[in-house]
Amino acid sequence: MAAYRSLRDLDWLMLFLVAALCGLGVLQIFSATYDTHYADAWWKQVIWIAAGFIAMWVATLIDYHTLLGQTPVLYILSVVTLIATYALGMSAFGSRRWIGTTSYHLQVSEFVKIVIVLLVARYVTELKTDQLQLSDLLKLGGLVGLPMVLVMLQPDLGTALTFLPALMAGVFLAGFRWQYAVAFFAIVAVVAPASYFFVLKDYQKARLISFIDPSQDPKGSGYQVIQSKIAVGSGALWGQGVTKGTQTQGRFLPVPHKDFIFSAFAEEHGFVGVIVALGMYFLLLMQIVENGQTAPDRAGMYVCLGIAAVLLFHVLVNVGMVVGRMPVTGIPLPLMSSGGSNIVAVFVMLGLVNNVRLRRFVN
Amino acid sequence: MKLRNDREHQQIATNELLRDDSKFASGKIAFFQYLMVAIFLFLITGFWDLQVRNPALYQERAMENSIKAIPVLAPRGKILDRDGRVIVDNHSSFTLYLSRENLKMEHLRPIAEGLNLDYDALVARVRRFKSRGEPQYHPIPIKEELTPAELAFVDSHKDENTFPELEVIHTQHRLYPRDGLAAHVIGYVGEVSESDLNTPEFARFHQGDIVGKDGIEREYNDVLTGTDGQRRVEVDSFGNERRVLSEDKESIPGRSLQLTIDLDLQAVAELTLENRRGAVVALDPRNGEVLAMVSRPAFDPNLFASRIRSKDWNDLVNNPAHPLMNRAIQAQQAPGSTFKPIMLLAGLETGAIDDSFHVNCPGGANFYGRFFKCWGKHGTVGIHEALVHSCDTFFYNVANRMDIDDIARYAEMVGYGHKTGIDLPHEAEGVVPSRKWKIRNFREKWYPGENISVGIGQGATTVTPLQMASAIGGIAVGGMWFQPHLIRDSVHLMPARRAEVNLDNIRKVKSGMYGVVNEGGTGVRAHIPGIDVCGKTGSAQLVSNDAIRAGFKQGKDMKDNAWFVGFAPCDAPEIVVATLFENGEHGQLAAPIVRDVIKAYFDKKARLAQPVPQIAALPPQILRPPAPVATPAVATATAGANP
Q1: pLDDT tens digits for A264-304?
Q2: Active site amino acids of B
Q3: Which burial class, exposed, middle or buried, applies to B76 when counting CB atoms under 10 A from its CB (0-12, 13-18, 19+)?
Q4: Residues B27/B28/B34/B36 CA torsion (nearest 10 deg)
């Protein structure tokens, strides 16, 4: 097997983009925190990125078919861990997203995301028909829905929602009757308003309201959006320069090294910097999709596109939030936001993409 | 295809159904790619809107967020005495301001509770600032002289999420002498009032500014007030200063003022007046410099240094003794017998009397069918004895021989009836009765019978203690009147008025006043051995003898006012002191006050003339005791060994 896996076959463009984006992230974390008590966040991030590359390498080595074969085990493990997290997980920032006792917490749901991608890929690969039957849809929906509900209970709506693009990508690519789509949206149209009143917590409602009209609550939830827009806007074309952004440095921006890192980046690097960074994200995603297109089999294609869908969703929601075009959900920007679990999880996903790529030239 | 498929299946033993035709979904993948393009365009347009289309709007809002203009308050100038000793100083304190950019009305209640402020007053204050249309960056001062506990409250609450409008500014507060020393001269400062702001005098000020409200503080407000600067700082969301952007307007401290007041003399005058109601004014008649000015009862200007509490203010305003009134320039009282030197001068100058004029005093005299009483029986008196013993009968006759307008002319010549022009606000001008005055005020003609009481300083005539000191001082230096003033090196003085009077007549008046003190006259209590003090007593009735006869009830408030005015030395006067002792019964009682002030003046002069003792000339053992004495333990041990 080792014969057709050589370093030359790795996706070097992707690795370059990953390294570049991580570099921008570290720079921005440094700039946003260098005179706060998070000042050590940037080198922690460097360590996490190093760990991420190792995790990526491991994820590249183990044949993705083997991983797909172990999906049921991984899935059961994930569900059990999520329940455990819910039961005895510690509270950080008012929610039980973390497990662990040291200063390095593990955010389980970030890794469950990978399992979901694998699960969906395996499920739709094993279909005998060309279209998903209703029973398949319900089964798959149930399998993805269970961990989603568990993550929502943590409560972490944002991360739970990131499971959806993996599911939707799989369903979309596998094919389904359009009537199901109509029925689905009809159900959503009924359930969404109902869940607004019965499921969403008050702070989540507030976030939604402030998304629709931030000025309604300029010091509460809307505050983050307003401050973020001010930061982005004051960056103008060329940006205010590293460590010079008044919104970032004055700590008007909430968590400028985590969820709002792109806002800080936009303030300090301007529209030009934004185009460069978003361009790299775009190329990275394109690269992942291309690896999916050239995958040796459907399973590889599903894995790559599932990952592309998840990352695209992350970028859309996070960056959209920064410019006030998406509600505040608290999901990180892949590769740039400070935070160990997310970095490692993203690197594992990219490792899986490379994994698929390395095995495209079977024979 | 099939073959590869089989081989693949061998690799993944468990998943026989994995298919390898990954191209089946290429159309959908293309759709996914277009979706990606759409999403990225959607995001980029978001940045385009904010960063390229209207960045100025957001840059401005970022500035509003983080740039704060903080006033740098200029300290007021100090007030010094004539020797450069500090009378009024400043001390550092912290003042709490509400910044109006991020002020929320609903925060006022917890802020008021946290700082023990009256909530309603605070709300009214904020409203007033709004209604005046002060610029938004002009913060509202709400509490001065913060205590450490209050500072701690502010510190722990001024962050972005609690009360971001709280702002502490380092300020300088007025520190006045204790016990109201020279309080009426200095005046006090306070927050500029709404009505003041509408006057040209205070046009340059803003609401919340501290301005001089009375005394020197008010008269020289423009000199003492510095120019406030402004510091633009960048702050973070907690309100902490991150860096100073520019000292774009430096504060210019107010200029110091050197007064003509001599603190030594002032202190003596304050002490000798004790708690009696009245005033003391000491002038240098050679130039009009005010050496001391006291009014009692006094008040504590420190009450005003920060915002005065309404209780304190009401106590001051409702006090029947009117402590805020500066009696030295505002008490308008009949001069009584202190008017006699002026009458004598007027009589001699107009030729109504001459040196040979004598009057017999049997204890009074009849004029126009009425008996006018003298305070004693003086027998035959000439011009000298008349002044020495303050004979009323003599001056009734002088007045009777003169025209009222001539008397008025001489009274006005010495400065009565109009303001002296001293550099203090609210000076009173007193009254000099004349024909014109009577027509103007009573629409009646002057009756010659009214001359009689004017001759002894009764009737309608009223003067202030400052006017009296200035008037007598001007006569004492030979008929030259300088504008009384409180500031050294003042450039706005009116030129001295020189009167065309016969110096010989002035000498006769001075000689009489010398006799008052030194020849057993009414003012012997002002006598100082070795110094030629001249003076004149006065006991001005507040109620006419007729009223007393009619059964007017004599309370303490209706007792005679006691005056004394004196100067020294007789030949070349350097100091003139006038004292009003309200309800003091007789001028004899006011004389010691003048004596003490004059004595203090000459004592100081003598002290300054002596050589200063040299400290270096002291024997060394006084400065440092010899070693054996400094070690008593050894000494005791030795003593024990040799009983």
Answers
A1: 999 999 999 999 999 999 999 999 999 999 888 889 999 99
A2: 337
A3: buried
A4: -150
Domain of residue B119: give its range: 67-259
Give the A:B interface size as CB pairs under 8 Å: 180
What pLDDT does residue B612 have? Answer: 64
Interface test with A, best of B11, B12, B15, B22 (most A CBs within 10 A): B22
Rounded distance between C-alpha atoms, residue B347 and residue B409, angstroms: 12
Select from A293, A297, A362 the Cβ nearest to the Cβ of B26. A293
Any domain includes B13: no
Interface probe, candidates A298, A307, A314, A318, chain B, greatest B C-beta count within 10 A? A298
B4 in a domain, yes or no? Answer: no
Strands B140-143 vs B86-98: parallel, antiparallel or unpaired: antiparallel
Between residues B494 and B355, which one has the greater pLDDT? B355
Neighbours of A142 (CB within 10 A): 9
Asked if the structure places residue B344 within a domain, the reply is yes
* Residue B620 pLDDT > 70: no
Residue B380 lies in a domain: yes
- Nearest by CB to residue A274, choosing from B17, B21, B47, is B47
**Average model confidence (pLDDT) across chain A:** 85
CA distances from B200 to B216, B225, B276, B335, B624 (A): 18, 16, 38, 37, 63
**Rounded mean pLDDT, B265-272:** 93
- A169 chain-B contacts, CB cut-off 8 A: 32
Is A233 close to B55, i.e. CB distance below 8 A?
yes
Last residue within a domain, chosen from B259, B280, B299: B259
Contact between A298 and B236 using a beta-carbon 8 Å cutoff: no
From B239, which residue of chain A is nearest by alpha-carbon distance?
Answer: A250
Total domains in the fold of chain B: 2
Interchain proximity B25–A173, CB inside 8 Å? yes
Find the angle CA(B195)-CA(B197)-CA(B198) to the nearest 5 degrees: 70
Confidence band for B632, pLDDT divided at 50, 70 and 90: very low
CATH code of residue B234: 3.90.1310.10
Q: Is the pLDDT of residue B178 over 60?
A: yes
pTM attached to this predicted model:
0.64
Q: Using a CB-CB distance cutoff of 8 angstroms, which residues of chain B are in contact with residue A286? A: 33, 36
Q: What is the predicted pLDDT for the residue at B628?
A: 45
- Model confidence over B332-350: pLDDT tens digits? 999 999 999 999 999 999 9
ipTM (interface pTM): 0.91
Instruction: Tell me how far the alpha carbon of residue B136 is from its chain's centroid.
Output: 32
pLDDT reading at B502 higher than 50: yes
Residues B252 and B283 in one domain: no
